[in-house]
Design brief:
Mean pLDDT: 86
Strand content: 15-25%
Number of helices: 27
Largest sheet: 8 strands, mixed
Radius of gyration: 33 Å
Length: 992
């Protein structure tokens, strides 16, 4: 008897082919290899396929599968014959199979590199993108097994299948033979196939989020029979928000005759509900969740919000319970927010969903908020509520076992109701994907991120994430490259979000400052300089300024072509009796609104001190309300009129109403801002980036953000300036210069790497010897100045004679390498006597030659010592780094980073973004160095690492950059079997 594939050690069951995928409609399915145990599933699946689909598959009527067919379709060697199935609820809904063939179309084995492929999708599941997902996975399997082409025979009438092949983006050939269409697909991924795959991924994942945020019906599981409790609270919030869909209460303890609770139908299980349920909110103890999930899955629920705790945050047992929860939900095609979640809110008028525990629901607005922490979510909602800000959507994902921030970036990317995305993250499950999605989303709307748990050195409880070795500073740099506005605190995130949501992007860094306090103006001026802005001298309107004076001054500042943004400072008017009056804030707000609405579209922010009602009035939308003409009296109305109910429906403004705001937080390290008129999703960039808004367009909704401290307002404005600059640059992407191709031997480098690693490489990798590293780098036009060993003075003299004087004598012992400060380097040795004297000094001072491992190297032209590195991080991918050589740069962390592949723009920004960059450009009268040569070197290193993933690290140190050209004096390279690139493979959800 022939052993089954599972019994054969050569063809063991490939469990790494198993994958959960999101389909076009947002539901999930599982793709896995077909095994010998699937005979009954296969027969049942085939019986549910229409006669027409069977005809398209077999080119003839084929009502049932024979025993021979079943055996053939369930027995594979997983090399030359492979079958994959798509399952939902454990049952097949689609299959695909390939058989390796030779040039004549007959069954074959390797080295034949072509296979015949055939699909079959159940009619009820056609149109869900099942075949497209299967094609991605079977193509990846085939490439792994050495197959380079697929051949397929398709009947001309089978338009759906022809479209699947045609739209995949692979290079293909098509011909018509013997009454069928013959298709040949080259399985090598192309830019088009990758774009198609990622476009499908975006639409599917966005749709899966939409199903959770815009359900037609919601069942709350775990509604208590008495007031209070989590389930009852969620039900109350759903009803209080005016949810537009149907609502049901579920509790297995309800009496059989209980018809309603809180006015909604009451049921003891989801299965008892006669109508479809789109979303279930689960609020039962963890040990009862599996029963609830099964109940939902059997009833066709589309998604779950699991509020229940007791999962991965409780240790190993909880982690396994969480894995099982995800597996169970996905087996039914459901996605999960949670567990240990706080809930979700969607303020769209057509939905009005508040399936959360939020005590103060936010008003409708243009900000989307995602948080991994329920406590932080509560704080953010409360703060936004007090500041009159509004949200489009809110998600507190808890342990984010399934749905994550990446999914919501997919959704917000084209959500017309969201202009700004705010994310509080404690971990990033897929950093490569996050960076890719953030880059795309930031091109059309701002993405503001606070990263918690930056320095804890451990993963937050409940979060399953890949291990990353890169420091937090590198993470910040990579986010900045992707256009993400990274800030340090949630206060800064809200400050920036309010400005970005309600104001146009600044055209540049020039800031006008005006107000009735000279001191507050000077504080604002200093804050602008500290943030790298270009403030104009503050304009003091004096304490006698009236609202009309503020309006006139703001109108004048906005009309000034030398001004890109305006900060208005305001303090209470001091009466003749010496008492400070809070003033009529609404009158001043009306004046500022009027000036902003009538002037060119430039951002305006207000810094105020204890002016009652001002922040709330500024936050009120005025785009559809006629503005009253401001009075001509000073800010000193003896009566204090606080803003009214507008605070609950606005989207901008203040830290506190009458008291001082929170202490200013540390500046955030990232760029930031949003477009003026609402950025049309991906179709066009928001206005204001290029300063081309028509006069009078003003802020998008008439709201002006207010801040209790100058530093906070300026920091938010600075993020907007940096983000706007990034947007302008991102509109014209960088490129890799073509001249590199003429001096790069990619095939030669690949052959050399293969030879160096050998046929059975050590998975830990291996460092290259200096000569090996020099040869590999040389294939990419990177010339390393040779060094010759000098184990004794005589050998050192001979080496110097060979290289030519002047020379350098260096120690290469690990503890002395690149440590000129320890005395291990002697430079400019002009002759033999100088060399012998230096050799003696080194050995007398630092130790024996065998310990020092000295080498001799020809002197390089004088210049600036720099360091170029590249390394592959298992989580973030390949990272290119640059800095100046020496201990000060290392101690200060003055190193810049970019993701690979780097473009010409990335290389230029890399060398200019370190704090010590002036040294390269003629600091203190020195001659500028050859930065063009340095940029070229960075591009060559990037290209080498990108072309050959086996190159897991490169360090060029030092690289001496002179006024003309540069010299690489030292190089180390490490090779390793290429790490898995999950970001380039077929679509899949994280496995648990």
């Amino acid at each position: 008897m022939q052993p089954s594939p599972e019994q054969s050690p050569q063809h063991a069951y490939p469990d790494h082919w198993e994958a959960d995928v999101v389909l076009r409609d947002g539901g999930t399915a599982r793709i896995r290899p077909i095994t010998t145990d699937d005979a009954e599933r296969l027969v049942s699946f085939y019986e549910q396929v229409s006669d027409e689909s069977k005809y398209y598959r077999f080119f003839a009527p084929y009502p049932r599968l024979s025993d021979r067919d079943v055996h053939r379709f369930t027995h594979h060697d997983y090399v030359d014959r492979v079958g994959l199935a798509v399952t939902v609820g454990g049952e097949f809904i689609a299959t695909v199979r390939y058989d390796r063939i030779d040039a004549r179309g007959r069954p074959a084995s390797a080295p034949a590199d072509e296979a015949e492929v055939a699909f079959l999708v159940q009619d009820a599941h056609q149109g869900r993108g099942v075949a497209s997902a299967l094609l991605e996975h079977i193509a990846a399997v085939a490439r792994e097994r050495g197959i380079r082409r697929f051949a397929a025979e398709v009947l001309p009438a089978n338009n759906k299948m022809i479209k699947v092949f045609r739209d995949a983006g692979y290079t293909q050939q098509r011909s018509f033979e013997d009454g069928s269409v013959h298709l040949t697909l080259d399985l090598e991924p192309t830019a088009e196939s990758l774009a198609v795959q990622r476009g499908r991924e975006q639409r599917a994942e966005a749709r899966s989020v939409q199903r959770l945020l815009a359900p037609g019906s919601v069942a709350v599981i775990g509604v208590g029979r008495t007031p209070g409790g989590v389930g009852r609270t969620v039900l109350r919030n759903l009803l209080g928000a005016g949810f537009t869909g149907r609502t049901y209460a579920v509790n297995r303890a309800f009496p059989a005759d209980q018809g309603t609770i809180d006015g909604v139908p009451a049921h003891r299980s989801v299965g008892e509900i006669d109508e479809p349920v789109d979303l279930a909110v689960v609020a039962v103890p963890a040990d009862r969740v599996p029963e609830a999930v099964a109940d939902c899955g059997e009833h066709g629920v589309q998604g779950l919000v699991v509020l229940s705790a007791g999962y991965a945050e409780w240790g190993a047992e909880g982690r396994e319970r969480q894995r099982e929860l995800v597996r169970q939900a996905r087996s039914y095609g459901m996605r999960i927010i949670g567990p240990n979640a706080f809930g979700v809110i969607n303020n769209a008028e057509a939905v009005r969903l508040n399936a959360s525990l939020a005590p103060e629901p936010p008003a409708p607005g243009r900000i989307g908020l995602f948080t991994q922490s329920g406590a932080i979510g509560i704080a953010l909602l409360s703060g936004l509520y007090r500041r009159g800000a509004g949200l489009s959507t809110f998600i507190s994902a808890g342990n984010r076992a399934d749905i994550s921030g990446n999914d919501f970036l997919q959704y917000w990317y084209e959500d017309p109701d969201t202009d700004v995305a705010l994310l509080y993250l404690e971990s990033i499950g897929n950093p490569r994907k996050f960076t890719r999605l953030a880059l795309r989303t930031a091109a059309v709307k701002p993405v503001v991120v606070v990263k918690g748990a930056r320095h804890s050195g451990s993963t937050p409880p409940g979060h399953a994430v890949p291990v990353s070795r890169i420091p937090d500073a590198t993470v910040s740099a990579l986010m900045r490259q992707a256009g993400v506005i990274r800030v340090d605190t949630v206060t800064e995130m809200v400050d920036a979000g309010l400005l970005l949501a309600d104001q146009p992007l600044p055209a540049g860094p020039r800031v006008a400052i005006l107000g009735n306090s000279e001191s507050l103006g000077l504080l604002t001026y200093d804050a602008c300089l500290a943030e790298g802005l270009r403030p104009r001298p503050p304009r003091d309107l004096t304490t006698a300024a009236t609202p009309q004076d503020f309006r006139d001054a703001l109108t004048e500042a906005l009309a000034d072509e030398g001004c890109d943004s305006v900060v208005v400072t305001a303090i209470p008017w001091v009466g003749e009796d010496g008492r400070a009056e809070s003033g009529d804030g609404e009158v001043l707000a009306s004046a500022l609104h009027a000036a902003a609405a009538a002037g060119p579209a430039k951002p305006v922010a207000v810094v105020h001190v204890e002016i009652g009602g001002l922040a709330e009035a500024l936050a009120a939308a005025t785009s559809t309300v006629a503005l009253p003409r401001p009075s001509a009296r000073p800010l000193a109305a003896p009566t204090s009129t606080h803003a009214s109910t507008h605070a609950g429906t606005t989207a901008s403004a203040q830290a506190t109403t009458t008291g001082p705001g929170p202490a200013p937080a540390a500046p955030g390290p990232e760029p930031g801002s949003t477009g003026p008129a609402r950025p049309a999703p991906p179709r066009s960039a928001a206005t204001g980036v290029d300063g081309e808004d028509s006069p009078g367009s003003g802020p998008r909704n008439g709201r002006i953000p207010a801040y209790p401290a100058a530093e906070r307002a300026v920091r938010a404005l600075a993020e907007a300036v940096r983000y706007a600059q990034w947007r302008r640059q991102a509109a014209v992407p960088g490129k890799v210069p073509e001249f590199l191709d003429d001096t790069i031997d990619e095939p030669g480098a690949a052959d050399l790497i293969h030879a160096l690693l050998g046929s059975d490489p050590d998975p830990r990798g291996r460092p290259l010897a200096p000569d090996e590293a020099r040869e590999l780098l040389g294939r990419y036009g990177i010339i390393v100045r040779p060094t010759l060993p000098a184990p004794d003075p005589e050998t050192a003299v001979a080496a110097a004679a060979r290289l030519g004087y002047p020379v350098a004598l260096k120690t290469t012992a690990p503890h002395l390498r690149h440590r000129a400060d320890l005395g291990g380097v002697r430079l400019d040795l002009a002759n033999e006597n100088a060399l012998r004297r230096a050799y003696g000094e080194l050995t007398d001072l630092l130790g024996k030659p065998a310990e020092l491992q000295p080498v001799v190297q020809a002197m390089a032209p004088r210049g600036v010592d720099t360091v170029v590195r590249a390394a592959i991080d298992p989580a973030a991918g390949a990272v290119l780094s640059f800095g100046l050589a020496g201990a000060p740069s290392e101690l200060l962390g003055d190193t810049a980073h970019r993701l690979v592949p780097a473009t010409d723009r990335d290389a230029a920004e890399l060398i200019r973004s370190i704090r010590a960059a002036p040294v390269l450009f003629g600091w203190r009268g020195a001659a500028p160095v050859d930065t063009a040569a340095l940029e070229e070197l960075l591009l060559r290193v990037s290209r080498l690492v990108d072309d050959h993933p086996e190159v897991v690290s490169i360090a060029l140190e030092p690289v001496v950059v002179a006024t003309q050209g540069l010299t690489v004096l030292g190089a180390s390279v490490r090779l390793s079997p290429p790490p898995a690139r999950t970001d380039l493979g077929p679509r899949r959800l994280p496995n648990y």
